[in-house]
Write a structure and sequence with these properties.
mainly beta, 5-stranded mixed β-sheet, 60 strands, about 35% strand, about 5% helix, about 900 residues
């Protein structure tokens, strides 16, 4: 490709590991990667419409016409990278994160308290930022981070479980949210469910098998969900479900059933005491206590997706079992003469062949007369570039054994008003990741289904409407000016659906959906336009719920309003911009936001990485009224990707840094170490210069520079199939480059053979540098050279390193900064720790929930520490209060 790819919204193709994160299929595991494209970026749609009306294309769009069509393969190639940073070089034993949380909680705390600065509405449609790289005016409105599960009751209470930011409660039918799970050791949600007694059950561990999800610590119950909060004392059973993901919780016969990544389990609903019972695991030898527990395929061999319980006979249960990419054990199981047996016939249209049963979701009508199911097909996932959806089905007998009738396929849904077809995809293209299903309690023929979009049927599946289209860009009524939109260009939901619930508020019934943009609602029997699109969606992401998943943060002076401007890159929600006078935070770039550079002297000078070093730069915060539609010269952001973006030789979230002594010198890392010296005035990728080749198969994981001295860390291979890592040091002018000799085995006291995640250079001495190391020490990691330690120090420019971890918790370390007083702050997967000047031991900074902090930055004056969390927004704390 001659230009950066122009598509957004990466979704990983990966599976569950035992460590707490997710990775792609290793060699020897269940095969099948599938095609999981981004949702197409606004630019493509705007350009296509503009070409129809004017015959013109902007230069950046015209370059994109050279794309070779292999983007889905590139996405699949990079999908496991968040996870491999935490798991390589081997398999991580269960319990690693639980032990790390206990260790972190035992540290003494600094006196400082964190302040959330992103707890205000984040408008993805902000009219201030209608630049060429923005998704503004797509129709999703206010957004927050990914929601994995939703529950609602008839008293106006709604519960939203996020991917990495905990569970939230609203007592007003949505909005005015409060966090209710902050005291738990896992903030990753897999399932939420209300039982017949009104108790709220929480299954931790997000089960969408995407790369930035974490495993959980079990199941918890809240007996008074209207007023209480979850605590560790409310955990059900023992530690049987630690380090699993939980896809669904279902009730029947006095039991709660849990579909987990390690089989199907059950527990009495009458008591929280006593162990969970393992009902069925298709491959028990691969469970943590089995003989094949450390086999690379183990994480894939006992995945279960859902449980369907016969309403007329709770003793009859059907299990949906199987890894989404396929294995010969995939299928539907029921008990025959006391033994769980795969159903091989009699299901009707619902497939019995293992190749056609992947991720499955069930939904039962309140009166028991109907059962519905969504089935993702491994065969489709691996062979059909259009869709991985096998179909949507109904059992009109109400029995989970059927017979089942297919009521929708991807072609039928595409014809129901879908916006995906205009984006070049088809419904269910990510059915392994996007699924929900529910039935109107008042009407067994009224069904809501979620894939990338939201679909509704009022006649039991005979006809469907796309009530929540992907976005509005594909529709003829669309205009960048909302005042000029008409017809079916109403507000829609964010794409990528995960959770759904129906509840009542002030006597009216509403459907609540959770997706990659947060929580939305509409009346259950809402209005539609002529195209079948809902006209009455409301975003419930009012700023009181902050589950934004940041990869990065940047801070610069706000020259227009005083104070500072804060920006950051987010999972699936682009780049946020928060200026000092804002009451609403805006988005000036769309899709996934990666690393960020911000000019300390001017916060509107921003470099934003999409993925694979696809960097855009702006010098006015990308403020734009959309004038570029008719005059391409009015675009205020520019693509400046280094060549490693075009060749695919950079990591998904690739490292980008400015020289600490000269903000006009930038360092970017792919296979090569790239330098450009034009700062924010750069306008072309050709202005980068390669100063060092890390070598074939090697890609940069971290870069830093100070006074022209550059440090670069790399890996390659980066997964547990022969993992290697290294460090190279040189100068920004291309001189003096050399590889540092690191022991291959990661012996005691030396840099381990694990993922090298970041550098922190002493501002007073460029030869004095710290190195953060991800993953877990060899106590948990069974891989060659895993070693010990997470923080290493060099005083000779990287030639030699010393382990200075001391009492640092055994948890992945992600980023570090040297504070002006000579202290050291380090971001980890569970919070921030600090070492005071002259000290050797660590303290916990404040009391953040158990959330990953992926990057730390200092304010321009050095007085404030900024933390980019992957699930709870951006937080600040005064440096002076750290110790």
């Amino acid at each position: 490709m001659s230009a950066p790819t122009r598509k957004r919204r990466w979704l990983a193709i990966c599976a569950i590991t035992a460590s707490g994160v997710l990775v792609t299929t290793p060699a020897g595991a269940a095969s099948g990667r599938g095609h999981a494209p981004f949702g197409t970026r606004a630019l493509h749609q705007l350009a296509a419409q503009r070409q129809q009306s004017t015959g013109m294309l902007s230069p950046s769009v015209a370059e994109d016409d050279d794309d070779d069509g292999n983007e889905a393969d590139e996405i699949a190639e990079g999908a496991d990278q968040y996870a491999e940073a935490r798991t390589s070089p081997g398999v991580v034993a269960p319990g690693a994160y639980g032990a790390a949380w206990s260790s972190l909680a035992d540290l003494p705390s600094t006196k400082g308290s964190w302040r959330n600065i992103t707890d205000l509405p984040y408008n993805s449609d902000d009219p201030r930022y209608r630049d060429i790289d923005s998704n503004s005016s797509g129709g999703s409105g206010n957004v927050t981070g990914r929601m994995a599960a939703i529950a609602a009751d008839d008293d106006g209470y709604v519960y939203a479980g996020s991917a990495g930011g905990g569970v939230w409660r609203s007592g007003r039918g949505g909005g005015h949210w409060k966090p209710i799970s902050d005291r738990l050791p896992s903030q990753s949600t897999g399932a939420l469910a209300l039982d017949g007694a009104g108790r709220l059950w929480l299954g931790t561990g997000e089960a969408t098998t995407n790369a930035d999800a974490y495993l959980g610590s079990g199941v918890y119950v809240l007996s008074d969900p209207h007023h209480g909060t979850f605590s560790t004392r409310s955990r059900v059973g023992g530690d049987e479900l630690e380090s699993t993901t939980i896809h669904e919780l279902r009730f029947g016969g006095g039991k709660v059933w849990a579909a987990t990544s390690e089989g199907v389990w059950s527990h009495s609903t009458k008591t929280l005491k006593g162990s969970w019972k393992l009902e069925f695991a298709p491959n028990p030898d691969y469970l943590p206590d089995g003989s094949l527990a450390h086999d690379p395929a183990a994480p894939y061999k006992n995945i279960t997706n859902d449980i369907a319980i016969d309403p007329k006979d709770p003793g009859k249960v059907v299990l949906a079992v199987g890894w989404r990419s396929g294995d010969d054990y995939n299928g539907f199981y029921t008990k025959v003469h006391g033994t769980w047996t795969r159903i091989t016939s009699g299901l009707g249209d619902l497939p019995a062949d293992a190749d056609d049963v992947g991720s499955v979701t069930f939904a039962r009508s309140a009166d028991g007369s109907r059962y519905y199911a969504i089935d993702e097909s491994p065969e489709q996932l691996n062979s059909n570039p259009d869709s991985g959806l096998e179909g949507i089905y109904v059992s009109k007998s109400g029995a989970p054994t059927g017979p089942w009738t297919k009521i929708a396929d991807y072609k039928g849904l595409a014809a129901s008003g879908s916006a995906l077809t205009g984006a070049g995809y088809m419904p269910g293209v990510q059915a392994w990741y996007n699924q929900f299903l529910t039935v109107d309690p008042g009407d067994p023929d009224h069904v809501y289904a979620g894939l990338e979009e939201v679909y509704e049927s009022k006649d039991g599946g005979s006809t469907w409407s796309t009530v929540g289209p992907y976005w509005n860009f594909n529709f003829p009524c669309w205009s960048i000016d909302p005042a000029k939109q008409s017809g079916d260009c109403n507000q829609t939901t964010h794409s990528d659906q995960h959770g759904v619930a129906i509840g009542r508020y002030h006597g009216k019934s509403f459907v609540y959906v959770g997706n990659d943009g947060g929580v939305y609602k509409r009346p259950v029997n809402g209005s539609q336009d002529a195209s079948g699109h809902a006209t009455d969606w409301t975003s419930l992401n009012d700023g009181t719920i902050d589950t934004l998943q940041y990869y990065s943060v940047g801070i610069g002076k706000d020259l227009d309003h005083g104070g500072v401007s804060v920006t950051g890159g987010l999972q699936d929600n682009g780049q946020s911009v928060l200026r000092s006078n804002d009451t609403v935070m805006g988005s000036n770039f769309g899709g996934d936001g990666g690393d960020t550079l911000t000019d300390p002297a001017n916060g509107c000078n921003i470099a934003e990485e999409y993925v694979y070093l696809a960097i855009q730069v702006t010098q006015n915060c990308a403020v734009n009224d959309g004038g570029w539609l008719t005059d391409p010269s009015k675009a205020t952001s520019y693509g400046v990707a280094p060549p490693d973006n075009a060749t695919g030789e950079a990591r998904f979230i690739a490292p980008l840094a400015a020289d600490a002594k000269n903000s006009s010198t930038w360092i970017a890392g792919g296979r090569h170490i790239w330098v450009q010296t034009h700062g924010y005035a750069i306008r072309s990728g050709s202005e980068w210069k390669s100063v060092y080749d890390l070598g074939e198969g090697h890609t940069a994981t971290a870069v830093a520079a100070s006074g022209g001295k550059v440090y670069a860390a790399w890996c390659g291979p980066c997964n547990n199939q022969g993992f290697t890592r290294g460090i190279a040091v040189g100068n920004a002018d291309g001189t003096g480059w050399h590889d540092i000799a690191l022991p291959a085995t990661g012996a005691d006291g030396t840099v381990p053979n694990r993922y090298l995640s970041g550098f922190a250079v002493d501002p007073k001495n460029a030869d004095h540098v710290y190195l953060t190391v991800s993953g877990f020490s060899r106590q948990w990691t069974e891989g060659p050279g895993a070693g010990v330690g997470h923080l290493f120090e060099s005083k000779d420019g990287g030639t030699t390193w010393k382990d200075v971890s001391a009492n640092f918790p055994d948890v992945p370390a992600d980023s570090a900064v040297v504070t002006p007083n000579g202290g050291l702050a380090v971001a980890t997967d569970l919070g921030v720790v600090y070492r005071a000047p002259g000290r050797s031991t660590w303290q916990r900074v404040g009391s953040l929930p158990a959330v990953a902090v992926l990057q730390l930055k200092l304010s321009p004056d050095g007085r404030t520490l900024y933390a980019a969390t992957h699930g709870r927004g951006i937080y600040t704390v005064p440096v002076s209060s750290c110790g």
